[in-house]
Amino acid sequence: MTRSTTATDGRPALRRARRDLWRAVCDRDEHAARQAVFTCLDTGTGAEAVLLDVIAAVQRKVGTEWAADRFTVAQEHAATAIHDRVIAAMAHHVPPPEPRPGAGTVTVACVDGEWHALPARILNEVLRHRGYGTEFLGAQVPTPHLIAHLHQTAPDALALSSSIATRLPDAHTAITAAQAIGVPVLAGGGAFGADGRYARLLGADAWAPDARAAAAVLDARLPRPRTGAVRQTLEDLPHLADQEYTLVWRSKRQLVKNTLGGLETRLPAMRAYSEEQRERTAEDVAHIVDFLAAALYTDDAGLFTGFLTWTGDILQARGVPARVLDPGLALLGEELKDFPRAADFLARGRATLDDRSATPPSPTPSLDT
Amino acid sequence: MSSVGASWMRAPYPALVVDAAGAVVEANTRAAVLFPRATRGAWLEDVAPRWLTEAHRRAVADGTDSLGHVGGEHGEWSLEAYPTTGSDGHVVWWLVDDTDRLLAERALRSEQERTAFLADASSRLLASLNTERCMEVTVELAAEYLADAAVLVAPATGKRHPLATGTGGRVTHHSLRIDPAMVPGLAEALQGFPPVPSRWIDPAALPGWAVPEGFAGPVGSVVVTPLPGHGVSAGALILLRRSDQAVFDASEEVFARVFAARAGAALSAARLYGEQTGITATLMAELLPPALRQVHGVEFAGGYRASKDSERVGGDFYDVHPGAGTDQETLAVLGDVCGKGLEAAVLTGKIRNTLHALLPLAGDHGHLLRLLNGALLTSRHTRFATLVLASVRRRGSATHLRLTSAGHPAPLIVRNDGTVELADTSGTLIGALPEVRSSTTHLTLRPGETCLLYTDGVTEAHGGPLGDTMFGESRLRAALAECAGMPAEAVVERVQMLVSQWLDDNRHDDIAVMAITAARTAHLTAVDGHTAGRYTA
Fold it and tell me: Same domain, yes or no, for A156 and A123?
């Protein structure tokens, strides 16, 4: 679900490999997937191009197809698993070089709670092929593990990946903790914003929109941050002093419960919901509260309205009008009327939904554009 | 003046009378000590400092006492001067010697700077538990605040000494075979003897390695100070100053030692942490869940999450023992020891080892469980365990499983059409009763079908959008129904992800999941690469 602005490379060998890999992934044919990638490598395409312009490109299409409801969650997982295995097989087929002396060492990890490990894994492979000494810690690395690891290995940089904005508070903890022990942090992934604004906000040493840019940042060497006391949250984000984030986060369950109760009173149709339907609705409300909390954390209404726009697209693709979200937002607004920032974000969220009912959904990019 | 007379002359404070033109009229005894040439008729500007002469000019022009006092230095003194203007245009300058106060202020400022430096140094030194990084910070700080360059010599590891050298903001690491006796005081410092005074060290006699690359100019003075560790030396610090800089004075040498004590403590803690992590990693390696892979046409994938995020092991475990050949069964086991944390993990290690030893007897699960039960009953542990055994063998497109549960949740089978079945096996837990019973079930997986082994950490996960609901078996079944035809890793990832999202930030038990999936692909390329194409779906 990571969106990237990287232009897709149009060379014929890459186009063919993308087409074959896409077909293999749709058929869940691991062997054919491997064949598509190996053929491309054997006809002279470099490992980096195969990783980024074939595998990552197809994985992006998987995300797009899921968003457009043309791929199930199971298909998405299967595709990711196949890509994972193909990348593992690639390492045997075209082994990365031994780390170049003096090239630097990088630890690549996903933020706590982040399950999308593939972008980080691809970056890890790209860096290995460029001669870096890397360590890949995988998906959802609890911050205490991450920091213990950094103490032991003291790499030249930490590449931290996160795709979902709700993980930003965890990312912040990881960033400040790593910097306090003298490890600079390069942030990447959809969570940090298309322009890296949240990476800057949370004090990351650098941000990169894709693996090539990340490698370029690391090639230029990140200066080591001064070791010392861990920077306090309020130093980066003084607006958190109003406690809105803390209170919304802590009363999340109660908010969901109250909103669900309110919906049942207002929407008679909901009373006929099955237990499972009720649970789905509760999950949707919980999701909205998660993003509202993230918006309060970053003090960015755009994070919240952006999430609603995206959710609106997802719903629309499944034949559900985006305005179903409105009653929930209205109820949350009543619950949180004493919280100026939260109330403002919710009002803007409702306005965004209002606007979109007038405009058609954004077109989905295709693989070969 | 005569009216004031002799008492004025003997006043305890210096006083100086100067006329409007700037000539000295009279100086009392104290003033004469300060200004020996201030005799009657001498020009003030010839005998007194400039700041006083200028203040006098202003006082005369002003004509009143409103000017207030001025202050400045005169030779080794620091003076304050208060003017009083007489009717005859004379100005009497009353002087107060505040040299002591100035010295005290200077000492205070330098002490404040040192305290601030030490506070900053401490927080920077203590932040990292990595030995190399800690050496780096020590050298950086020393070369920036105490000297022009610094060299940290760590105790030898083997025959080499790790060295960190720094000057001009750059620190480099080396590992060198050096003779500490080449630098006077270094061998002593490394052994923890009291430091050798700086003046005993001849800068010209320093060996090349003791002067960092990029050090500008000849070495003027050297201090060697020990880095006292916890019980043992943490190394020694060599401080160098260029010949154009002041040599180290006694108070600076003392201060260097104060800094070195802090650096030594930090280095010692980092070294201890490094050693402990090394030991932990070695011991932990046996307890960590193993990395799983495809074996003879069957995919195995596992996922593990300890109850505490700061831990990596717990009371859940899994293992896969590959069959010796393609016609041999592979034994997979997943289980749960009563309890959490390291103690439980140690017992999982014992169970895993015992099972490994009992592998030749895996043909009869009931027999194997009885032996394991006996072994657990006689061990000093009082804990019990539940587990599932799965013996797996693929023949062509059919993957045969023998499954036995010993007091453990029965595995779930995910068929290609999305139906989810409960494996029909049950038995008593092991390690508690002298006798154990169990029933084994046989079943077959088609390519793409999965058998999921899991611990109750999955089903008993408390959370959900309202925060108070158990995940439960029916949600797990519903999730698995969507996993039909997925590779083993994807099934495990899906289950782990759903449970994690369900839990959110709630407390939870250890969680272990293992998927056994008949590989879908027609041409199976096992990791060893020898079995490609052997199995066809």
Answer: yes
- Which CATH number does the domain housing residue A321 bear? 1.10.490
* Gap between the Cα atoms of B56 and B23, Å rounded: 10
Check pLDDT > 70 for residue B530: no
Closest by Cβ to A228, choosing from B123, B277, B482: B123
Q: What is the mean pLDDT of chain A?
A: 91
Using pLDDT thresholds of 50, 70 and 90, give the confidence band for residue A359: low
Q: Can you name the residues that pair with B442 across neighbouring β-strands? A: B402
| A151: nearest CB among B273, B483, B497 | B273
End-to-end C-alpha distance for chain A, whole angstroms: 18
Among residues 106-135 of chain A, which lie with CB inside 8 Å of chain B? Answer: 112-113, 115
The domain made up of B103-282 has a fold known as Beta-Lactamase (3.30.450)
User: Which of A203, A236, A269 is the last residue in one of the domains?
Assistant: A236
Burial (CB < 10 A; 0-12, 13-18, 19+), residue B102, is: middle
Residues A210 and A114 in one domain: yes
Residue of B nearest to A224 (CA): B133
Rounded Cα distance between B472 and B304, Å, is 18
Domain assignment of residue A63, given as a range: 9-95
- Look at residue A204 and tell me whether its pLDDT is greater than 90: yes
pTM of the model: 0.84
- pLDDT for the residue numbered B7: 81
Q: What is the CATH number of the domain that holds A65?
A: 1.10.1240.10
C-alpha to C-alpha distance for B119 and A131, rounded to whole angstroms: 40
B161: amino acid identity, one letter:
H
Q: Are the C-beta atoms of B392 and B458 separated by less than 8 Å?
A: no
Residue at A311: amino acid letter: T
Provide the mean pLDDT of chain B: 90
Is pLDDT at B80 greater than 80 in this prediction?
yes
Whether residues A145 and B312 touch (CB distance < 8 A) is answered with yes
Q: Are strands B24-27 and B330-337 parallel, antiparallel or unpaired?
A: unpaired
| Structure confidence at residue B521 as a pLDDT band (50, 70, 90) | low
For tokens 């449970």, name the residue: B499
Q: What sign for the dihedral angle of Cα B472, B473, B477, B480?
A: positive
Distance from the B505 Cα atom to the nearest Cα atom in chain A, whole angstroms = 10
Q: Does any domain span residue A37?
A: yes
- Residues A79 and A191 placed together within one structural domain of the fold: no
Cβ–Cβ gap B487/A257 under 8 Å: no
Q: How many Cα atoms sit within 13 Å of A286 on the Cβ side?
A: 19
Tens digits of per-residue pLDDT, A263-287? 999 888 888 888 888 998 999 999 9
Q: Is the pLDDT reported for residue A163 higher than 90? A: yes
Q: In chain B, what are the domain boundaries? A: 5-97, 103-282, 294-518
Instruction: Mark whether A80 and A114 lie in a shared domain.
Output: no
The pLDDT score that the predictor gives to residue A10 is: 66
Q: Whose CA is closest to A186, among A105, A298, A113?
A: A105
Domain spanning B294-518: CATH 3.60.40.10: yes
Q: Could you tell me if A347 and A301 are in contact, meaning their C-beta atoms sit under 8 angstroms apart?
A: no
Cβ count near A286 (within 10 Å): 21
The CATH fold of domain B5-97: Beta-Lactamase (3.30.450)
The residue-averaged pLDDT of A97-117 equals 92
The residues, any chain, with a CB within 8 Å of residue B407's CB and separated by 6 or more, are B386, B387, B427, B428, B429, B430
Residues of B in contact with A261 (CB under 8 A): none
Flag whether A261 is in a domain.
yes
Interface confidence, given as ipTM, is 0.88
pLDDT of B368 > 90? The answer is yes
Residues A108 and A184 in one domain: yes
Same domain, A246 and A347: yes
* Mean pLDDT (whole number) for A300-313: 94
Instruction: Report residue A4's pLDDT band, with 50, 70 and 90 as the boundaries.
Output: very low
